[in-house]
Amino acid sequence: MTCTSEVSNNFHSRKNGMPKLYEQLASWWPLLSSPEEYAEEAEFFKKVLLENCAPPLRTLLELGSGGGNNTSHLKTHFQMTLVDLSPGMLQVSRALNPECEHFEGDMRTVRLDRLFDAVFIHDAIMYMTTEDDLGRAMATAFLHCRPGGVALFAPDHVRETFSPETDHGGHDGERRAMRYLEWAHDPDPSDTTYVVDYAYLLREPDGAARVEHDRHIEGIFNREVWLRLLRQNGFEPKIVVDSYGRDIFVALRAHTQV
Ligand SMILES: C[S@@+](CC[C@H](N)C(=O)[O-])C[C@H]1O[C@@H](n2cnc3c(N)ncnc32)[C@H](O)[C@@H]1O
Asked: Which end of the chain is more exposed for a tag (fewer CB within 10 A), N or C?
């Protein structure tokens, strides 16, 4: 692909800012988050995509595809192409979704020089921490979406729905096991970021356990900013609310651009 050297450079320039979960701890991802947990929301995303894309909807590009958990469900309906910044996460996804195309790339800059029926960015959009970055990810989605197609953006929160929260979970693997505590808070509500601290408890095959702290800096924008940036990047946007109360941005690429 023409994109390879460019995206590798982008990855290395950002590498030190990436959470441990997507670098040295990437192989633990399936023990933090399992594909089964994504079945219900993947069904919802499939339905929204089909309702909003001018037929046919065959090809789907996912930007920031991570460990490929959503894809493990969506791939039974669509031909999927996956892009992620992290080689470790791509490796996890390739093991789960060997039949899908995978590319290393940054959602702000990657150019595959192909059009897809639809483009999907799930929770990876949370790593866009400035309006400029969010707009660049939208521009990438627009450039890869055919006229009449649709792009779906599924942030965990918009500014209006954010509240501090804690969560926990984890799974037992065949040899290793993981449990985690997740704690989201916003030290400065006047800026476009918030903080998610994770404590991972990692149990190795010999029974030894260790703790890792991982701080994720994530982006948060109000609805008006989302809608304005989507329009600026060529889309006709609307919002649907999912069963978790999340704002899902459905962005149509018109058949004819004016
Ligand atoms: C929570 S994981 C995504 C999990 C995914 N929704 C799934 O179904 O498995 C977030 C992903 O965003 C990726 N990411 C963060 N910044 C990115 C960027 N600028 N471009 C592409 N991927 C990015 C990370 O490497 C990570 O794999």
From this structure: C
